[in-house]
Amino acid sequence: MPLQNYVTFQSGVPERLHFTDHAYEQVTITDPRTGRAGLRNRLSMTVDEINGSKTGAGGLPVIASLSVLASGLEEKLAAYLPGKTYLGYDFIITKSGVGDLTRYSVQVIPRSPTA
Amino acid sequence: MARKSRQVETRMLSEYLLANYGKFSFILDVPLGNVSEGLMASQGYQAAINAARPFRPRADAVVILPRYLLLVEAKVWNAVNGLAKLPLYKSLLPFTPELKQYQPREVLMELVVGSAPSNLSIMARDAGVTLKIYNPPWMQEVVDGMNKYWTPEYQAARQEKIALREHFGLE
Known about the structure:
- The complex is a heterodimer of chains A (115) and B (171).
- Chain A is mainly beta.
- In chain A, 7% of the residues lie in helices and 48% in strands.
- Chain A has one helix at residues 71-78, and strands at residues 2-3, 6-7, 15-30, 37-50, 64-68, 89-96, 103-110.
- The longest helix of chain A is centred in the middle third of the chain and has 8 residues, at 71-78.
- Chain B is of the alpha/beta class and 171 residues long.
- Chain B has a single domain, classed as Trna Endonuclease, Chain: A, domain 1 (3-Layer(aba) Sandwich), CATH 3.40.1350.10.
- Chain B has a 5-stranded mixed beta sheet, sandwiched between helices.
- The relative contact order of chain B is 0.15.
- The interface between A and B is medium-sized, with 25 and 26 residues.
């Protein structure tokens, strides 16, 4: 569900997303266990549709961002980045587990030409 | 601790599915098998699914074809493990609540590998598994690396690289 303008996942709750753009950016992340900061690549996906709706609270258009640091999820989406192939698909992402055991199940659904 | 492995199978699978089954819906990282009906009755469907997730095996992918469910495993290393899993995972599909809406469909099995030694082909044929080779240029680099992985020269260079990464705190 959208929190401010970021998409977040609750464990076990599937979110159906459509992406319109993406970018890689370098961010500084502090490891909560070691306290050490390090540079990480983050994939940021622009979302224009959540669970089939192009409008959010107040009837405003959805303009949200999905921030992907988890390599397992990034690898699943990476094949769709060249040529913005993701424009032709919806992605139902379901998070499960917590911490190092977090996993993401991703269902890829072709969009109809009129969608 | 420096990272000592490369996550390549997810990329391999994702690219392969897009190239070969891009017109169909498919699910990556699919939990398989039944979920306690008692738990569903007492906790509700979603809570029971969540509680059961750590204890259920996961298939790399299921492609939803018009008449079939295609069960897919992708392996760069330990291809025999992937091959052995497929018939066992197939037995769980009819009991998987997340796939109930797509039943009844017959089940096909595919193992996606970077290269296929002849013995793997023999075993796959006997197990009723279709073997698919997916070998883009980046994959060839991985397979070549795999072939020389256990040579003394490669191991020495690898240990030196890991030590340097740890020394400079890069991971």
